[in-house]
Amino acid sequence: MHKKCGMIAFDSNMLLAIQALGVDVFGDARKMFGPGANFFAPTQVFEELGRIEKRGIKMKKAVSVAREAIAKNSLKKVPVEAENADSALLRLSGQGYCIATNDRELRKKIKSFGGTVIYLRQRKFLEAE
């Protein structure tokens, strides 16, 4: 088990990896942080998924798989005052959430503020830093 991450906020790219890479990000997060881990995403991530879904049949399928996983794993929507998903996730990081993202720039920003980032290593393993 890893250091404590009771509240994990997901970026859309991590949710889309479920279908794209066949990774059980929720199951892996529970293995890393225990069954008490709670899952969240800012409303901006849900809006982003809605936009991504309109990009074609492949993206529609990936978003559909992500939404099924969101429902199955009781991911909760968090309202955050921010202009976009990355800004919202940065804010949540400042409030003690661990952020699950594969966005390299966002990871750097969160780490520079002392936040915890969860990302996919080798496109298949969750890693926290």
Produce the secondary structure layout.
Layout: E1 7-10, H1 12-20, H2 25-33, E2 38-42, H3 43-53, H4 57-72, E3 76-78, H5 85-94, E4 98-100, H6 104-112, E5 117-121, E6 125-128
Parallel strand pairs: 1-2, 1-4, 2-3, 4-5
Antiparallel strand pairs: 5-6
Helix pairs in contact: 1-4, 3-4
What can you see in these coordinates?
Helix content is 50%, strand content 19%. It has one domain (7-128): 5'-nuclease (Rossmann fold). Helix 1 packs across helix 4 (57-72) and helix 3 (43-53) runs antiparallel to helix 4. Strands 3-2-1-4-5-6 form a six-stranded mixed sheet, sandwiched between helices. It has six helices and six strands, in the order βααβααβαβαββ. With 129 residues, the protein is an alpha/beta fold. Strand 5 (117-121) and strand 6 form a beta hairpin.
Low-confidence stretches: none
| Mean pLDDT over the residues | 94
What is the CATH domain class? Answer: Alpha Beta
Structural class: alpha/beta
Bin the strand percentage. Answer: 15-25%
Q: Quote the distance from N terminus to C terminus.
A: 14 Å
Main sheet specs: 6 strands, mixed
Structurally, the number of domains stands at 1
Name the strands of the widest sheet in spatial order.
3-2-1-4-5-6
- Number of DSSP E strands: 6
In N-to-C order, the SSE pattern is: EHHEHHEHEHEE
CATH topology: Rossmann fold
